[in-house]
Protein 1
Amino acid sequence: MSCDLTIIMYHYVRQLEHTRYPAIKGRRTSEFRFQIDYIKKNYNPVTVLDVVNSVRNGDLLPEKAALLTFDDGYIDHYVNVFPILFEAGIQGAFFPPVAPVRRAELLDVNRIHFILAAEQSHERLCCSLDEEVLAYRKEFSLQAPEEYRLEWAKPDRFDIDETVYVKRML
């Protein structure tokens, strides 16, 4: 028995090549199915209740415990994810944003995802942002674009520097 927990977070799970935004960072349904098979063979999937009981009551989680989470309430989760999890006998934790769903509004983070997926050259997006900063610099007391780039254009484990810059600026 162990207290270690691996949390595996998902967003988009869809047939990317058949969507309006095939370049969006997501997981193809076939890749997700493969990952579920891998998780079943190499981890012990747990439920949110298992995790809550571990935190509240000190219940031990099994070795190599894994919790699957799904953010933002995409239709992908209902149409693509749920049947695969059901077939595999695994539960996931789903976190839809209530207010935007009720109002049928797009989350800002999703707007950024779609912008990044629609433009192959993230450097071109950076240059457009820099131009906007220059255009409104005096009116809004903005820093020079170079200063923003120095501060925010730093790669992380998921994205190159240009992509991070666009995300942070937007």
Protein 2
Amino acid sequence: MPVKISVIITCYNLEKYISRAINSCLNQTMSDENYEVIVVDDASTDASWEAIRQFNGLIKTIRHAANLGVSAASNAGIREASGEYVVRVDGDDYINKNFLHVVCEVLDWNDDIGFVYLDHILVNKNNTRIQSINTLPKLLDHGAGIVFRKFYLESLGLYDETLRNREDYDLILRYIRNFNGYHLRLPYYRYFKRDGSLSGQKEDRENLKKMINEIQNVGK
């Protein structure tokens, strides 16, 4: 049976969290033969690779010799993916056990939908829920957890590897100009926001507003 969906976990110096991310992607209600997990280690200098290797036989792995950035790491995973759909999970985040089954059902039965995104639960280092996040007005806040049709991603040229940040926003902007998205009100993505993350900085919030305005003007 062909793989339906490929989960791509990107990792750079996330030894404290990467096992949690991998376990959440392996422990899904979807049948094992219908999905695969690909972990891309972007030249971590901590013990991330050692933690990833503990899952040998259960996942596919890619290890970069030099740090190339999230865009390149994501593209490496997409190129390796054999699934019809792909989703990226950040190495310090994790997903609900029903995530893969639900998103595949949406895409399988709706050919007009190009991507699916679910609500998030913001958690702290103890896995305690801090906040539920309705992602409908916050599509660009966090690019991981969005499920794309792989063929559509390839038609757009994947992530722009010249970008070291804002790579998700760039990709999503290009994607929504061509394909419809669907917001599913299920909080199945667990988002761990670390101190000093880019999404918490004032400059990024201002850039986000500009991006949202651009999205709202698409098609006008």
